[in-house]
Amino acid sequence: MTDPLLKEEQETSENAKRPESVGVGGTLRAIRVSRRISLSEASQRLKYSVRQIEALEAEEWANLPEGMPLRGFVRNYARYLEADVDSVLVLLDNAVGSTAPPRVVVASGMGPASVSGDAEVSMAPESTGRPWGWFILILAILVIAAFYAVDRGWVPESWLIFDWLKDIANNE
Fold it and tell me: Does the pTM exceed 0.90?
């Protein structure tokens, strides 16, 4: 009567000893198996190869991309399995280091700087006002060009609707 209980206890202790059941790969594999999703189904749905999914579940990091692509892969896989995405990403960060994008911190009186590097990123502030100066300059040039064209006689007199413009054109 105690033999079946001991076998179950022995199997659960063996599962706990396996490192794959503790990490992100083992967690994702356990969720996939519990939902009765095959590797080929997951591969077709996620558009990742079976080898990539197997490498993730086995936590073979050398066979997977690094950084943000790996984070996106794990995020998509966790979403597909309807797992807690944030928890899975924490497990991933614990396994391979931070895969999160670098944050940009803006200190008062200083330009933005990347947290991950020592180099500062300089960004010119965007102008919030309208470019009225350019508009006025272009308008003034067009008005001067129009008066010059009228004075030279390049504009037909039938186009001139004001008498004072006709006087300017006839002063030749």
Answer: no
